[in-house]
Each structure stands twice: as structure tokens, then as C-alpha cells.
Amino acid sequence: MKNRIFLSFICMAFVLTACNQKNSTKSEQTDANDSIHAVAFINNRVTQIYDTIYANYKKDLGYNDYLQFTSTEYNKLRQEARELTPDETPLDVPGSDYDHWVMGQDYNKDLRMEVLSVSDIEPNTATAVIRVYNFEPQDVTLKLVLENGNWMIDSFVSTFDVNGDTIHFDEKQELKEYVAGLKKK
Q1: Sign of the CA dihedral 135, 140, 144, 150?
Q2: Torsion (CA) 167, 120, 39, 70 in degrees, nearest 10
Q3: Considering only CA atoms, which of 61, 180, 184, 34 is closest in space to residue 121?
Q4: What is the value of pTM for the model shown?
């Protein structure tokens, strides 16, 4: 009888240990999956994108679209806008008269960026506000989307003061409106 009770306690201990290990593994997997939605993860991703791009600028490798860092939808819109734009007016494409990575037409060797905030984190979208230090500091809001397990830039939103008026330039929205206008013609 004592052996059966002792054996029952041992079996119960094994079952509880196995359940705890299973729950612990499940919890660790959930934490690993949720980490992509952590502010620190998104901050690091945006920093990694800009560090990669700016390293190439500092090597004087010239301008590149860096399509691997922008969303599929953004890239398709930009390509469609370029294809629909008459050859004689390529600068009509929204965002074509400046480089959104450096917030200007030129860049200096001290080019850098810092993430000011990450917010509005949803399952497939987030927002990051950055400050680009080129010749003059410029704040930019990055709309991010989660694609294939990584955060991609879906739009660059900048704010400018023009003659006392604050102008918000959402590059993706401007591209959508531009393409829609060309398709109506």
C-alpha cells in the first residue's frame, strides 16, 4: 500500500513537471512571437534600416531606392507612378524631387538618424517618429507594416512650414492620389 501511494506521488510529480515544461515552452514561444511587436524591437529595426542605408551613403555609393526596406504596396505604387508619368516630367512623381532617406537632395558626411518614438503598435502596423540629421534636423513619421515577419516602411510623412502654414506630406498618400489622377486621364 505504501509503495502504491509513493508510486502515485512520483507519477503525479512527473505529470506536473511535464505540464509545466509544456506550458513554459508555449509561453516562451508566445514571448518570442510577441517580441516583434515590442517598442525595442521596432526601434532596432528602424535603426538597422537607416544604419545600413547611411553606411552606403557615406561610402558614396550613390542613391538607391532601397526597395528591400519599403513595403510591397509602397513599392508597387511608386513603380506604377513612374510608369504612368510622361517621360518629360519624371519629377512630377511625388517624392521624386528629394531623397526621403536623407530628407533633402544632398547629404553631408555627418548624416545620422535617431528614433524619437515608436507608437500605435498593432498586429500588422506601427508608427515610428525619427529625426534625420542632415544639414538641418528634420522629423519624419514612418508608417510601418509587418511583411514576411519584418517591419517595412509603408510611408514617409514629413511636416514643413510654408509661409506660416504647416504642411503634412504623406508620400504614400500623395502617390495614391497622383496615380489615381493619371488613370482618370
Answers
A1: positive
A2: -60
A3: 34
A4: 0.78
